[in-house]
């Protein structure tokens, strides 16, 4: 008994894993905060810009707002490799579908393509995706495809590790009938709050507004993010 | 759905919870939800009060394992009472927090409970202490705790301003707990409040149908 206790103590003093940094064998993850909301005439989407491998920030200016088609974007969270692969595959499929139809694809179509892939390969994938865009039939739409492969349309949706911290803020501050500017400000504030609390989110806040006119992209740099009092 | 939903029978009772305390000039407002759950599936009590009075003007909120939290709280009440009698005067809020921390730190490997200690004393007025699992103590203007607190970090960071009045603090606390209960499945029920000032302590209960309603999305 005494001998085994001594052995345990020795193991706790010298742990071989401590000699190798954790980021050499950790998966690259977009531990993240992503958000999208509908307004009358389009959608506003936003994301932070941090990609981590363990404790190392592999990319501090990542663009997690990925175009899938002219007026359809997706916000990526989870494994960076998985989400990039899925987004590339859906971009191809949607492009092909759009050429066949000879018209702009529906946001719902894009969302369903994401869902098909995320659900079919749900055991192997780690991807939480928000699909948002504008089409002629239904205007601005936001669809969320969380891990597991569910698909649901929501007026406002948040995702990623940082999203937990802003559910309360989102529930209390969202109201229907906001203008594009109000939506952009709301998204900027929400991202800022999440980035402040979540260690895996940070950097700059990237925003985009998608409407019939097209896509307008913005960046809020770190020192320009809204500041809040906090204890 | 082929889950064995008898797992809750062998799960420990936990106050998966939302607790909050905020200080204003003249007093503190303390609040909690009222749900005790087992295994995240069964609500063993929908009306427990997690805001416990440890002395005339000092309260504490429990989170984590209910058994551990109650055991520690009872020990603190006893020790604080004794200390107060020895000193011959009402205890300091910092003393209560300190006694709480003694227990939490010395038994940190066995316990699984976090607390908020808040109240009023003559030396420093209104104070809020966060005594987290493991035994760290931090004094803050306001603090949130429990599983439901994750969802309201953004809200409280955005909404809190120094220099709020008592009524603003009560609204702030009620809104925060309501938002957390709306998102956390192991927080719920009614909102228990306590307001502590120089003149004493006052409890309040806000039933489910009187809670603020936020946009249902």
Automatic annotation (TrEMBL), chain A:
Q: Which CDD domains match?
A: proteasome_beta_type_6 (cd03762)
Query: Where is the catalytic site?
Result: 32
Molecular function in Gene Ontology: threonine-type endopeptidase activity
Which PROSITE patterns does its entry note? Answer: PROTEASOME_BETA_1, PROTEASOME_BETA_2
Keywords linked to the UniProt accession: Cytoplasm, Hydrolase, Immunity, Nucleus, Protease, Proteasome, Threonine protease, Zymogen
* Keyword Transit peptide belongs to the record: no
Nucleus recorded as keyword: yes
Report which reactions are catalysed by this protein: Cleavage of peptide bonds with very broad specificity
Q: What is its main location?
A: cytoplasm
Which InterPro entries does this one have?
A: Ntn_hydrolases_N, Pept_T1A_subB, Proteasome_bsu_CS, Proteasome_sua/b, Proteasome_suB-type
Q: Which domain of life is it from?
A: Eukaryota
Q: Which GO terms describe its biological process?
A: immune system process; proteolysis involved in protein catabolic process
Q: Listed GO cellular component terms?
A: cytoplasm; nucleus; proteasome core complex
Protein localization: Cytoplasm; Nucleus
Q: Which residues form the signal peptide?
A: none
Q: How does it assemble?
A: The 26S proteasome consists of a 20S proteasome core and two 19S regulatory subunits. The 20S proteasome core is composed of 28 subunits that are arranged in four stacked rings, resulting in a barrel-shaped structure. The two end rings are each formed by seven alpha subunits, and the two central rings are each formed by seven beta subunits. The catalytic chamber with the active sites is on the inside of the barrel. Component of the immunoproteasome, where it displaces the equivalent housekeeping subunit PSMB6. Component of the proteasome complex.
Briefly, what is this protein's role?
The proteasome is a multicatalytic proteinase complex which is characterized by its ability to cleave peptides with Arg, Phe, Tyr, Leu, and Glu adjacent to the leaving group at neutral or slightly basic pH. The proteasome has an ATP-dependent proteolytic activity. This subunit is involved in antigen processing to generate class I binding peptides.
Name the protein family. Belongs to the peptidase T1B family.
Record-given protein name: Proteasome subunit beta
TrEMBL record, chain B:
Which Gene Ontology terms cover its molecular function?
threonine-type endopeptidase activity
**Catalytic activity as recorded in UniProt:** Cleavage of peptide bonds with very broad specificity
Q: Chief location of this protein?
A: cytoplasm
Q: Which domain of life is it from?
A: Eukaryota
Q: Where in the cell is it found?
A: Cytoplasm; Nucleus
Whom does it interact with, and what assembly results?
The 26S proteasome consists of a 20S proteasome core and two 19S regulatory subunits. The 20S proteasome core is composed of 28 subunits that are arranged in four stacked rings, resulting in a barrel-shaped structure. The two end rings are each formed by seven alpha subunits, and the two central rings are each formed by seven beta subunits. The catalytic chamber with the active sites is on the inside of the barrel. Component of the immunoproteasome, where it displaces the equivalent housekeeping subunit PSMB6. Component of the proteasome complex.
Function, please? The proteasome is a multicatalytic proteinase complex which is characterized by its ability to cleave peptides with Arg, Phe, Tyr, Leu, and Glu adjacent to the leaving group at neutral or slightly basic pH. The proteasome has an ATP-dependent proteolytic activity. This subunit is involved in antigen processing to generate class I binding peptides.
Q: What is this protein called?
A: Proteasome subunit beta
The species this protein was found in: Synaphobranchus kaupii (Kaup's arrowtooth eel)
Q: Supply the source organism's classification.
A: Eukaryota, Metazoa, Chordata, Craniata, Vertebrata
């Amino acid at each position: 008994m005494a001998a085994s206790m001594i052995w345990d103590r020795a193991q706790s003093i010298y742990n071989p894993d401590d000699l190798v940094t954790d980021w050499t064998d950790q998966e690259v993850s977009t531990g993240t905060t992503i958000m999208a909301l509908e307004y009358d005439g389009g959608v506003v989407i936003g994301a932070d810009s941090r990609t981590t491998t363990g404790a190392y920030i592999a990319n501090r200016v990542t663009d997690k707002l990925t175009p899938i088609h002219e007026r359809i974007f997706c916000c990526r969270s989870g494994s960076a490799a998985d989400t990039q692969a899925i987004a590339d595959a859906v971009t191809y499929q949607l492009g092909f579908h759009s050429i066949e139809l000879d018209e702009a694809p529906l946001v719902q179509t894009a969302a369903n393509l994401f869902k098909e892939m995320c659900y079919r390969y749900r055991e192997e994938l780690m991807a939480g995706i928000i699909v948002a865009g504008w089409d002629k039939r239904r205007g601005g739409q936001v669809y969320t495809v969380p891990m597991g492969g569910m698909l649901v349309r929501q007026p406002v949706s948040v995702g990623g590790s940082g999203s937990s911290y802003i559910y309360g803020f989102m529930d209390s501050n969202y109201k229907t009938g906001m203008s594009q500017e109000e939506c952009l400000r709301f998204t900027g504030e929400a991202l800022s709050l999440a980035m402040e609390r979540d260690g895996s989110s940070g950097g700059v806040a990237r925003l985009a507004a998608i409407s019939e006119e097209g896509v307008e992209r913005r960046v809020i740099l770190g020192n320009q993010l809204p500041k809040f009092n906090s204890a | 759905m082929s889950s064995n939903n008898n797992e809750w029978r062998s799960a420990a009772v936990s106050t998966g919870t939302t607790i909050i305390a905020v200080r204003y000039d003249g007093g503190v407002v303390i609040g909690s939800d009222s749900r005790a759950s087992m295994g995240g599936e069964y609500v063993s009590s929908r009306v427990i009060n997690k805001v416990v009075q440890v002395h005339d003007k000092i309260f504490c909120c429990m989170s984590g394992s209910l058994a551990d939290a109650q055991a520690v709280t009872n020990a603190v009440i006893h020790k604080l009472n004794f200390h107060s009698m020895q000193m011959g005067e009402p205890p300091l809020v910092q003393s209560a927090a300190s006694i709480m921390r003694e227990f939490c730190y010395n038994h940190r490997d066995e316990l699984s409970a976090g607390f908020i200690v808040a109240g009023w004393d003559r030396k420093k007025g209104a104070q809020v202490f966060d005594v987290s699992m493991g035994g760290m103590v931090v004094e803050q203007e306001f603090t949130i705790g429990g599983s439901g607190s994750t969802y309201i970090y953004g809200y409280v960071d955005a909404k809190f301003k120094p220099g709020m009045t008592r009524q603003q603090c009560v609204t702030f606390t009620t809104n925060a707990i309501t938002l957390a209960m709306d998102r956390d499945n192991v927080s719920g029920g009614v909102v228990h409040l306590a307001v502590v000032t120089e003149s004493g302590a006052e409890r309040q209960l806000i039933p489910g149908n009187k809670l603020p309603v936020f946009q249902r999305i």
